[in-house]
Amino acid sequence: MNGDAGHDQAEEADSKQDGSGDADQAEDANEQEVIVIQDTGFTVKIQAPGTEPFDLQVSPQEMVQEIHQVLMDREDTCHRTCFSLQLDGNVLDNFAELKSIEGLQEGSLLKVVEEPYTVREARIHVRHIRDLLKSLDPSDAYNGVDCNSLSFLSVFSEGDLGDTGKRKKKGSELEQIDCTPPEHILPGSKERPLVPLQPQNKDWKPMQCLKVLTMSSWNPPPGNRKMHGDLMYLYIVTVEDRHVSITASTRGFYLNQSTTYNFSPKPANPSFLSHSLVELLSQISAAFKKNFTTLQKKRVQRHPFERIATPFQVYSWTAPQIDHAMDCVRAEDAYTSRLGYEEHIPGQTRDWNEELQTTRELSRKNLPERLLRERAIFKVHSDFAAAATRGAMAVIDGNVMAINPGEETRMQMFIWNNIFFSLGFDVRDHYRELGGDSAAHAAPTNDLNGVRAYSAVDVEGLYTLGTVVVDYRGYRVTAQSIIPGILEREQEQSVIYGSIDFGKTVVSHPKYLELLEKTSRPLKVQRHAVLNEKDSAVELCSSVECKGIIGNDGRHYILDLLRTFPPDLNFLPVEGEELTPESQKLGFPRQHRHRLACLRQELIEAFVEHRYLLFMKMAALQLMQQKANKDKTAALQDSNAAGAGSENKPLALESCDGTPDSPTSSESTLTPEDSEATTISENSSAENQEAMTEVPIASINGTHEPLAAERQNGGCDGPLEDPKSREVVLNACKAVGSISNTSFDIRFNPDIFSPGVRFPDDSNEDIQKQKQLLKDAAAFLVSCQIPSLVKDCLDHSSLPMDGATLTEALHQRGINVRYLGTVLEFMDNMPAKAQLEHIYRIGISELITRCAKHIFKTYLQGVDLSALSAAVSHFLNCLLSSFPDAVAHLPADELVSRKKSRKRRNRVPGGGDNTAWASLTPSELWKNITSEAHGYYNFSLQCESVDQAVEKYGLQKITLLREISIKTGIQILIKEYNFDSRHKPAFTEEDILNIFPVVKHVNPKASDAFHFFQSGQAKVQQGFLKEGCELINEALNLFNNVYGAMHVEICACLRLLARLNYIMGDHPEALSNQQKAVLMSERVLGIEHPNTIQEYMHLALYCFANGQLSTALKLLYRARYLMLVVCGEDHPEMALLDSNIGLVLHGVMEYDLSLRFLENALAINTKYHGPRSLKVALSHHLVARVYESKAEFRSALQHEKEGYTIYKNQVGEAHEKTKESSEYLKYLTQQAVALQRTMNEIYKNGSNASIMPLKFTAPSMASVLEQLNIINGIIFIPLSQKDLENLKAEVQRRQLMQDSGKIQEQQGSHLELDDKLPVDD
Q1: Coil, helix or strand for 550?
Q2: Phi and psi at residue 213, to the nearest 5°
Q3: Are 1081 and 1092 in contact (CB under 8 A)?
Q4: Which superkingdom does the taxonomy of this entry point to (predicted)?
Q5: pLDDT tens-digit readout, 584-635
Q6: How many CB atoms lie within 10 A of CB 451?
Q7: Contact call for residues 1098 and 926 (beta carbons, < 8 A)
């Protein structure tokens, strides 16, 4: 439910686009600049009224305001909000940087001076006190407000991570551990309870400080009291049940004499006048004083990451029943729109467009400026996304007046808080040609992808609108910032570029062409001409729908970017056009719901890269042939020029896949049988790069600077004097469909096949070329990208665990989700389909829940607000409950008052017959799901009920419930649901707690930080751990600088840092960084997101290494429980988790339990890696070790023999693994013989036998840790100096091969650091 699922996929694209050609120089420059940024900090003393002076570490970059924030958070000063800081009697300016303040230096004393209140300051104070009172209360996180979200790590680690944990004696800890997990976590358990998802956090038991704190009904003060300094009145009920009325005045807070029905504003006696409300309450209520102090102690002890706000709201799909308490601030917020309150901006509402565009215009010449700019962009974006989401909900809930109230509801548009909202319906038949409402529903997300692409290219002078797409209660709302002046003019007058009627009339503008030309290369958009209504040619450098409007602010805006990327011909049947055989074989083209299906940016990038390799290869081949044809003398003259390039590895080139003579031959479809023979783009990249040192290798962007064409494209003879070389390049260009004849340059014309767009006759040849290119790209998707995804799943370099991670894996390779059916079918026809069962299962459940989501969307549109929970619970019953005749409970009052409500029905968008939803039955819903699966995904689901689906595809109902809730924004009560009862439905309307929006938005990037992160990763992979560590630390600083403390990319950074700390032997530091990574992952991605599960596993390893065994076990059990809920037991990752659990249990001598987990891991590894895999050998060895500890030598021998056989067959007799295994076998045999002797002795001589003491060894912690490291892919290699030299040389050689930018693919997911040394499979 996490806003933008694709937070990773844009990264690669971005990094390619803004990566400067000379990255190294840029990096050196950056390192210099970084030093400038990190000025050394210094310490100042702070003196606050009533407290001892204390020291505070500050940095010269900070603003005075940040010290204010620190004081408002500190335990002893948190109750003050209205104060100034003074140095030698001078008040410091809140917005001044510390370094600009004269006389402020190491050891200066800053005094906190109480200031008089204003109404605004008094409100801020009350709000802050209320926040402090609520600081441990999780209800904001459950309700999805104020960027709060859940985290449960502290429940499992009980705060004993880091220092406190180290003090425990390792020995004494062994006795105290209770290792038995709850029944449902054990291997083979079929039970999947929901309640443990949110364990009870004892800190959340509410500590009541006050019964009521609210605004009094006597507000606002009458004029005569205003002139006495009264600002507002509060009404308070203390825990002791004392009712008091309080005046907030300019001097502070005091008791007055008013009662509920009698206004008497004079001060009471005593009035307890205090500058802070907390001081006043502490004097009148002993319970308040005691509980408030305890509460603040607890608040300060929590990890900061548990309470910092996240940049975008995360919603929880489950919540307990929370008591709804009185809360003045919440009540006030609900009815005033609180726009801009937090921002303290004069004039109250924010001009979003101005803010979004101004931040883009900030200077970006050097690192500090870029950081400032990116930070501003990110902050405005996250504020805008939050405001747009609130607005969209207000629109659908009916709280906003339409700007065209006379029209029918579907056509209404809204403005709220300077944001423009429109609904995703086909208004005025705008999309009639393109698929009506379906097209109108798809257009906003396409448009958002366009906005994302253009803002990533970041061309100065070209502006896009802030855009957020919100799905809420079955409606899709697009929220956009408003171009200044656009509402005063007719659209016809303001559009000076593009077309407002899909290409019938088209206009262009030189300034727009100039700006868009700059985006043409990175976005691969070809400049082209189209005919307007007068049949004259008009130049464009975007699709015709893309409109250019100059706002009243003089900025050039582009909007309607829904066709930024070219159409996907597999889903766009065009009369008279034939697709390539690869596509046809799979039954394409297929009719789609709408005609807006377009290719993803990732696919375009991959396709161009693939074509580039092909281009290089063809040029090299032709040069080699020419060279062979020349006679000796010519060859001699020429050898210095062309030799290097073509002679290196002619064989490698030939063998890659024959001589490619036409582009399509290399894209031959991968049939499931020959999935081994991967396409050219994979297996030849390394050889190619070496073989073509001469043929120029430009940026993988696939586009070369035309100026450098001579130097580059001749490939051999320096400038293109040699006509032969020119011909070679020309042929290669033609073959790969380059738009230039002298250099490789592939771009797409997005208007091809757009209905209503006509091209001038003289561009016919070009149009044919473009059509072919589109067909090739469509074929590339099905014949290269889908097989490569499946191959990555087979070799486990891609391991999706749920719908979101599967979608992300598809998107990273440029595969749209509409291909899900095709991908599933491809897997089903693989010979190795048993090893893909986990992915297939996730795919099926994703397909079913997406179909259900499509149906749910229209289902909800016909539901009255008063019946919402009844309708949602009825839908879930039809979807998931085994109860055959789910009957909807219509709310009683609705039935009575239907006559009356007839008149007002028109108010809600859509409004149809409001009880039609109640007639849905389970069998009808499942019929609809199977027909939707066939219609949308072209996949035939063979099931007529949920139980059949569960049975046939091995699904879990709890997983389906999680997926559908996350996709639709439903929040349900956390309790045990009986899905399988045939006597009563699983859900009642009381179980549906809330319905949240699902939000998509742009994710602005921290580009500098990301480059540092990548260079750090590269260094680590080359084996330079220390330098890598420094770069990653630097990246972390820069990320924090741009994003604040919480962000998914920071999470990846911390994980890598922890892993490096661990490898370099700094266990406590590893623990502290990994703890942050876990907390952040829980908060930003969700408590049961697959990433979070993995972070838990890493943390458990570092805890074990730190001697905190019981915590390590708790964390592993938590990870296992989460994984069971998210994807069930049958998943390769579960084998790793169970091996970890088994090893830790072995270490604490729980042998029987340990065996249950290790044997399960063995079974899963055997299934997914094949019985001959090294992973399976290792599993056998781990099981054997436990049997040895149990003195069951026969079983131990049996397993170790299996392992030995695998090692012998896979790596040969001489390999150290095989030798180790054979040694161990000998040892086991000796032990077995000794045991047998002893037994015989006992049988023979009875009790007085002389027994040899047998060695039963509990494994040492070190040996357990060593095995843990091996299975988790962490290897410590004791190397001599010479080995190190060799290793570095080898690494550099590989580096040269990889420099062509394929590094990311080889890392699988490019944020995971797995040591690439082949030690264990």
Answers
A1: strand
A2: -135, 110
A3: yes
A4: Eukaryota
A5: 999 999 999 999 999 999 999 999 999 999 999 999 998 888 888 875 445 4
A6: 23
A7: no
